[in-house]
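[Meeting: bench + compute handoff]

Bench side (C.D.) handed over the final construct sequence. Compute side (W.E.) agreed to return the predicted structure before the next meeting so the bench team could plan truncations. Sequence as handed over:
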Amino acid sequence: MNYRVVIPVDVNADTIKVADVVTIGGRELRVCDMIALPGRAKRLVFESGETFTMLPSTLMSVDRVQPNTALRRPYRQLKGR
């Protein structure tokens, strides 16, 4: 099974990732592309086609989807096999 969890993460321009979900003005926008700008800034391109310029000093909370590794069973070798 493919279990995934959504976790809130505080990010800046250096740590944001494609597929992060940003809430701006009460709207949830998923990042589909990023363009590096001078001065370590990034232009975020959302699935809706809208853009947002994120400066290195901008700190925001996003939702990030990650695999839930806590639900995976650890590999154990069976005795005698």
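W.E. noted at the follow-up: The beta strands are 4-11, 21-24, 27-36, 42-46, 51-54, 60-67. C.D. will use this when planning the next construct.
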